[in-house]
């Protein structure tokens, strides 16, 4: 409970503004207890991330292996990105923390990149590297990676904007227009839609994506 609550608090308030004492008070536990188990705020931050992403490493390796074994680039690209979106969706707090720390730079971003982002980058580099040539040109790998990370994290890191954009659809469905943009029932469809959009953006001009 503590680590899950800490992860959400870091995502909502940012590292500097998140108070361990306020978190302990919110959970009804002793601040000294939190300190005893996790030492500093920095150690609590790392432990919260590890808790939230406990199963993601194994699933990401499976995605990388699947992308390498799939002979059809369009299918590998779509499925790899859809799987990556689903991983972020299971821990949207991580996407928000990553977006915040990416804007700031520094030690925490270094930690995030080395431990969590680099494996995603390897998956995306593999997908970009396999893109078919068109007129002898290949995609700029750095620009493509930035585009992909933005697309993977934006639905979760930009939740307020997503809710605004989603307002009209929710009104038609009779829901709350400012509710969270992603609901469990919408997740699979949303991830597939984002993957298709990114895939089409990656496909070189004139290359028609083949339906599965």
Q: Total number of helical segments? A: 11
- Using the CA coordinates, give the radius of gyration: 19 Å
CATH topology of the largest domain: Tetracycline Repressor, domain 2
Into which percent range does the helicity of residues fall? over 70%
Instruction: Estimate what percentage of residues fall within beta strands.
Output: under 5%
> Span from first to last CA?
41 Å
Total count of domains: 2
CATH hierarchy class name of the largest domain: Mainly Alpha
What would you say the CATH architecture of the largest domain is? Orthogonal Bundle
Mean pLDDT: 78
Low-confidence stretches: 175-180, 205-212
Based on Cα principal axes, name the global outline: elongated
- Helix-strand makeup class: mainly alpha
SS elements, strand count? 0
The largest pleated sheet is described as: none
What features would you describe in this structure?
With 212 residues, this protein is mostly helical. It folds into 2 domains: 2-50, Homeodomain-like (Arc Repressor Mutant, subunit A, Orthogonal Bundle); 55-202, Tetracycline Repressor, domain 2 (Orthogonal Bundle), CATH 1.10.357. 75% of the residues lie in helices and 0% in strands. It contains 11 helices and no strands. It has helices at 2-13, 20-27, 31-38, 41-52, 56-69, 73-90, 92-104, 107-129, 141-157, 159-173, 184-202. The longest helix is centred in the middle third of the chain and has 23 residues, at 107-129. It is elongated, with a radius of gyration of 19 Å. The N and C termini lie far apart (41 Å). Residues 175-180 and 205-212 have low confidence and may be disordered.
């Amino acid at each position: 409970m503590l680590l899950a609550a800490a992860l959400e608090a870091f995502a909502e308030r940012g590292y500097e503004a998140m108070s361990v004492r306020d978190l302990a008070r919110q959970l009804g536990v002793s601040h000294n207890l939190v300190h005893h188990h996790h030492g500093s705020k920095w150690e609590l931050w790392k432990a919260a991330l590890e808790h939230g992403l406990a199963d993601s490493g194994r699933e990401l390796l499976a995605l990388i292996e699947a992308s390498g074994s799939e002979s059809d680039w369009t299918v590998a690209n779509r499925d790899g990105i859809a799987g990556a979106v689903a991983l972020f969706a299971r821990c949207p707090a991580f996407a928000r923390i990553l977006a915040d720390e990416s804007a700031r730079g520094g030690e925490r971003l270094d930690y995030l990149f080395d431990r969590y982002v680099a494996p995603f980058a390897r998956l995306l580099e593999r997908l970009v590297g396999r893109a078919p040539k068109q007129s002898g040109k290949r995609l700029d790998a750095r620009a493509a990676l930035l585009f992909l990370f933005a697309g993977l994290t934006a639905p979760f890191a930009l939740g307020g904007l997503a809710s605004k954009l989603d307002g009209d659809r929710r009104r038609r469905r009779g829901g709350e227009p400012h509710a969270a943009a992603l609901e469990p029932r919408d997740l699979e469809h949303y991830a597939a839609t984002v993957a298709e959009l990114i895939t089409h953006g990656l496909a070189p001009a004139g290359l028609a994506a083949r339906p599965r």
